[in-house]
Write a structure and sequence with these properties.
- The protein contains 5 helices and no strands.
- The chain is mostly helical.
């Protein structure tokens, strides 16, 4: 195994370990806060709000490219792991039941939609390039009309025969 792959595997294990520790810390601190008889929804709500603000920093990083504020790949990894942590915070905040009011339902539905597209986008960005590589020739944007014409000719020949 190459050095870069070993570094990637070590980095992934390290990041997953940090995520697991952060989730454990979040769950334990949420449980401890609930034991104080305070409203734990405020605690999880502020954690959720802070996490969403941290996730928004990734958008700011992609727009501000002129300043050397870290590699985009590091920011993306930070965004992914904080996003997974925020999903756990959301489940703790809402619970496994449907919210009561219309506004709460709209907020929950929008969060679930954004989180689902994020997880789906992460899955696609990790799986599709490999599958496209094994599928065949790379399709360059400028050559799409030529490929479409070729496919059209093949379809016409198949219909005629």
């Amino acid at each position: 195994m190459g050095k870069s792959l070993m570094r990637f595997a070590v980095r992934r294990r390290w990041n997953l370990g940090l995520l697991t520790a952060a989730v454990a810390l979040l769950v334990v601190s949420y449980g401890a806060y609930r034991l104080t008889l305070h409203r734990a929804e405020f605690f999880s709500g502020w954690i959720l709000f802070g996490g969403v603000l941290l996730l928004a920093l990734h958008n700011l990083r992609t727009r501000v490219t002129m300043y050397p504020i870290g590699a985009a790949s590091v920011w993306l990894q930070f965004h992914v792991y904080v996003g997974l942590l925020v999903i756990v915070a959301f489940v703790m905040h809402v619970g496994l039941h449907l919210p009561d009011g219309l506004l709460e339902r709209l907020l929950a539905a929008s969060f679930v939609a954004v989180a689902a597209t994020g997880v789906l986008g992460l899955y696609w960005s990790r799986r599709l390039p490999d599958r496209l590589t094994h599928r065949g020739e790379e399709v360059i944007f400028e050559r799409i009309p030529a490929f479409m014409a070729q496919l059209r000719r093949q379809a016409e020949n198949a219909v005629v025969s």
